[in-house]
Amino acid sequence: MPVTSAARIDSTYTEGHDTFRNELASVARDGRRRWVYARQPSGRLYRVRTVLSVFLLAFLLLAPFVEIQGQPLMLLDVLNRRFVILGTLFMPQDFYIVVVLALTVLVTVVMSTVVVGRIWCGWLCPQTIFMELLFRKIEFAIEGSAEEQLRNDRSPRSLTGTLRKGIKHAVFFGLSFIIANVFLAWIIGSGPLFAIVTDSPRRHLAGLLAISIFSLVFYAVFARFREQACVLACPYGRMLSSLVDSRTVTVTYDTVRGEPRSRLLRGPQGSTHSGDCIDCHRCVTVCPTGIDIRNGIQLECIACTACIDACNDVMSRVGRRPGLIRHTSADRLRGGSPRWVHSRVVAYAAVWLVLVSSAVGLLATRHDLDFVILRQPGTLYASVAGGDLANFYTLEGLNRSSRVAPFSVEILEPAGATVTILGSSQVPPYGVLDARLLLRLPPTAIKGPTTVVRFAVRSDGHIVQRIDSGFLGPATSNGRQTP
After folding, report:
1. Tens digit of pLDDT for each residue in 245-276?
2. What's the pTM?
3. How many whole angstroms separate alpha carbon 313 and alpha carbon 324?
4. Which among 332, 363, 439, 440 is placed 20 to 30 Å from 268, CA to CA?
5. Cα 188 versus chain centre, distance
């Protein structure tokens, strides 16, 4: 079988550039940290990422403080097992719905990775948004461009440089402290957070210590650890990278068009013996993890598209067609099918549709009021005035709405039974009510040691729930109660 030109280029390219797999771009061969001075990107994709990051940052910072009908937009109170997602309350009784929603989000991330690569890492991950679109921009504003930072770090220390670094780290820690408090609001809510902040610190020393520790952790991540969080620590990067194959549309360097590289600029078409890549290293200098995308798809690549903007800018400057680095698949570069729909995508899409349908169905059929009635444990029947027999029951009412929910309890069967609510007959908004019931049955309604009882809970004039339980009574013999 004859070898195509694309195959020859790929073979030559691999033989010459495969040494990158032996080491990390941000770690030297002796194990020391190789600091990444990433240039500030610019271009169409970077502007889109900036707009998206502003929206996501606003959502992250404001979600615990924005209220919808008395509930925060987002609350993940794992301590009390109480979750609010987009203003919708989920209690421990709704745990199965939360599990379905979590699985839906997970499958969504997996399916999107199979189709368009690690878009989560480069566009939606909080680590990337905070680092690249907040902290690094502040660093550029205070210490200057990446080139200036490199020169200052390699030059003898000066008063101006030391002052700039001190200001930068003070701002970094202040932002980290704010982020730690916002994350705390996501867990305990804005009300308790304001109460803690406005109260004397002496009464919340443990909380202040915890917030200080989390602030130092965030500061260390954004001031020092940086891209190592994605390269070394993050397990999701490895999981998502394992889903990428030759059919995945991701950030890819066109080796067929770009190789062999040449620094000679000879018009729009360049040299007849060279590709379009002029080996300017702009794609490397803007990469936040310090890799060379021309070496192929790599674990350290977070698909942030900074290299695409940088390469397109260079191509336009030298009069060549943009897209040398672009969103495409390895199969497409080799002349394969451009279709992105294949068996894996169809399988994930089928699972995703099942999960979405299940989540929508569960949310649509969920009621605002939910009641549980159980016989009170450890009690027997009792005889009351008039000759009736009585059992005690516990009632738990859950209200998922923003209004007070009055209710009543009646008996559908057996006939002649009466029930009395011992406690409040109103469930507070977004709250839980614990009450007791006293159920009386005439002796003629007793069917044996256990008699089936059907309760009906009524609210706003209609029955919201029917509950079956049992009534404990004396055994009967030939229609008579045994003592």
Report:
1. 889 999 999 999 998 888 755 555 545 567 89
2. 0.82
3. 11
4. 332
5. 18
